[in-house]
């Protein structure tokens, strides 16, 4: 008994167009004929279609399926192992993307609770980079300090943020002045500025020991997106991020007497 293309499409869950495509590609051609001369799919064709659909479900391209089916001696297991490795890698990548998306949603739902207009009014050139914020959330999500900082930021009012940004702007002016006048990064003036920044974080966000401050400064020097959250591009100078990092680490040495937890 043979089956028409419409019948096969119906019980195989594919379209007639797909079966015609398989036929045109030489992958599956009906082997039987009706008394009226119409081409029909026989039992062997249906078995072959099952194999094709199995490999398609696993993501094999048609040319590779044709290679496997064309050679009865072909080692299908090797092809399946290769496909298994690829699918495993894709699953890992997709899982990572899911995690990034979840963290991005968390970043959007916490942190600065201001309208877009209020953000522009308060932050000015300081841009909130979602990609960096999400990466930071992924990197530090198990850090108690990061969690506390995010939670504390969510409680700040517009007035709080205005004061935070005013303090930060005044501090940036002193930092760039020290840099521009050639003050050494490990000198007293630069270290005092580093200590002021550390205490600013502790006062407004989370207790910031010198070890944590060092990691933050390392991020500033390594990632322009991080430094742009502290110093807008229009106020930056080449080497300023590295200068601040040196000052922060020098201050950590100075504070090594145990007075760095405030």
TrEMBL record:
CDD domains: HTH_TipAL-Mta. It comes from the Bacteria. The keyword Membrane does not apply. InterPro entries: DNA-bd_dom_put_sf (IPR009061), MerR-type_HTH_dom (IPR000551), MerR_fam (IPR047057), TipA-like_antibiotic-bd (IPR036244), TipAS_dom (IPR012925). Residues 77-104 form a coiled coil. Residues 1-71 form the HTH merR-type domain. The keyword Coiled coil applies. Keywords: Activator, Coiled coil, DNA-binding, Transcription, Transcription regulation. GO terms for molecular function: DNA binding; DNA-binding transcription factor activity. Pfam families: MerR_1, TipAS. PANTHER family: HTH-TYPE TRANSCRIPTIONAL ACTIVATOR MTA (PTHR30204:SF90), REDOX-CYCLING DRUG-SENSING TRANSCRIPTIONAL ACTIVATOR SOXR (PTHR30204). This is MerR family transcriptional regulator.
